[in-house]
Design a protein that fits this description.
Order of helices and strands: HHHHHHHHHHHHHHHHH
Radius of gyration: 21 Å
Helix content: over 70%
Oligomer: single chain
Shape: globular
Structural class: mainly alpha
Number of domains: 1
Largest sheet: none
Distance between the termini: 26 Å
């Protein structure tokens, strides 16, 4: 490992900021995939298509969450072995990670394609947009293997201490996605299928671009068929660390899908406005998500090197770094929610319906910052079982029951329904903070 990839040395504030920034930019571009799809459809199609893509991207996001969870497990393991300076373990971890994800990608593609109609029915997708949503998700299912490949490679690089290369790959892919969206939808009139095809093509190019680039560089792993193997001990470690992360990501997405299924029953305008809000959730929470993933890699390397003080300083730095970004989105949502909705649609029904929801749910932009960063710290320490339990508790015991209660008491009040997410995040932040204080105090005996 080169000195520039070593996250266990140097000024920790500089390390966190410089390592997190490429994460943030890469995640912004990656989040644009679904957002660009929705924007282009909003410009060149009807409200039913907007509702279909907003619902369809909710489905694809849960698949991406599954992928991201296990790949983050790869980041943590590679980072740990980097800190311990065990080169052979690094190679075996990378080999196992990539091989597993090729298999997982094929399995998820098949499952999503065949179960697509049942998932959309469970979400109570409006009848007027059901076929469009089915069309979008069905086409996207063929690109899952490319999403797996790209995310696996990016996760490995970040655990290795390189957050810049994934940014280059995804930037090229994002530009290609935008161009293809416009060509397929505006000029070729392919509708929702065009947006899905654009996403598949751009992800495919991004994955192969990453493989070719790394093969030409002095990277620790060469992309050759003979190097793709599953090592049992590393597979076990990947499952122990990665599956809980995957489960927690899935539970979060399931709870938001439940919200989608509830609001879909309130009509097309409600479905579209909440779908648009979910896109802003992604962007507003990107600073927190990016820092959390960066912290997982930074903490993993320092945990492997027994640098406990740097881990705590990294967490504090990460929260302070992400806070201004989250606050900016919160202020925007409070003072001009109509302009946020207007980016995706000029339909007055969607805008008027969405304004109260934006004003209440935007408090979550602040609350979730602390939850994500603390979870990133714990994931880096391989304490993924706690973060899994926390996310399951938040989703199953808090968020979903509260959505049910609020929808029963205030069936047409999106403002009240929007308060559920920030309330749950605030509760989760409190008990996670108490747990971290406990383990940090235990660490002091090793100082």
């Amino acid at each position: 490992m080169t000195e520039k990839n070593d996250l266990t040395k140097g000024n920790i504030i500089k390390t966190v900021i410089l390592f997190s920034m490429p994460f943030l930019f890469a995640n912004i571009i990656q989040a644009l995939y679904g957002a660009v799809d929705l924007i282009v459809i909003g410009w060149y199609s009807n409200v039913e298509s907007v509702a279909a893509v907003s619902t369809g991207t909710q489905v694809t996001q849960i698949i991406t969450s599954i992928i991201s969870g296990i790949t983050l497990g790869g980041t943590v393991l590679v980072g740990k072995y980097i800190g311990m300076k065990k080169e052979n373990d690094i190679k075996e971890t990378i080999s196992t990670n990539l091989t597993v994800f090729f298999i997982v990608g094929i399995m998820l593609s098949v499952l999503l394609y065949f179960f697509c109609p049942y998932i959309l029915k469970a979400l109570k997708t409006p009848e007027t947009s059901f076929e469009y949503a089915k069309e979008y998700v069905s086409v996207c299912s063929f690109g899952i293997v490319f999403i797996c490949g790209y995310n696996a490679i990016s996760a490995i690089l970040r655990g290795y201490g390189d957050s810049k290369s994934p940014l280059i790959f995804v930037a090229f892919s994002g530009i290609l996605n935008l161009i293809c969206d416009i060509v397929f939808v505006k000029y070729l009139k392919l509708g929702v299928s065009g947006t899905a095809l654009a996403t598949i093509l751009s992800q495919c190019v991004s994955m192969f671009m990453a493989m070719v680039y790394l093969n030409k560089k002095d990277f620790i792993f060469k992309f050759k068929i003979k190097n793709f193997k599953i090592h049992k001990t590393k597979l076990k470690e990947l499952c122990i660390v990665g599956i809980p992360i995957t489960f927690q990501e899935c539970m979060i997405r399931v709870s938001f899908l439940y919200l989608t299924s509830v609001t879909n029953q309130l009509g097309v305008n409600a479905a579209a406005s909440v779908g648009i809000a979910s896109k802003y959730d992604v962007f507003a929470m990107l600073p927190a998500t990016s820092v959390a993933n960066a912290l997982a890699a930074i903490v993993a390397q320092n945990y492997g090197a027994n640098e406990y003080k740097r881990m705590s300083k990294a967490l504090i730095t990460g929260v302070l770094f992400a806070f201004p970004f989250s606050m900016a989105f919160f202020i925007w949502a409070q003072f001009s929610p109509q302009s946020m909705l207007g980016v995706f649609s000029s339909d007055s029904g969607i805008i008027n319906t969405g304004i109260p929801f934006f004003k209440s749910c935007s408090f979550d932009y602040i609350a979730v910052l602390f939850v994500f960063c603390m979870n990133g710290y714990l994931n880096g320490r391989s304490m993924t079982f706690f973060t899994m339990l926390s996310s399951c508790f938040g989703a199953v015991a808090l968020r979903m029951p509260l959505i049910y209660v609020f929808c029963s008491k205030f069936p047409n009040d999106l403002k009240m329904i929007g308060t559920v997410a920030p309330l749950v995040s605030a509760i989760m932040a409190v008990y996670t903070f108490i747990f971290i204080i406990y383990i940090v105090n235990k660490d002091k005996r090793y100082y």
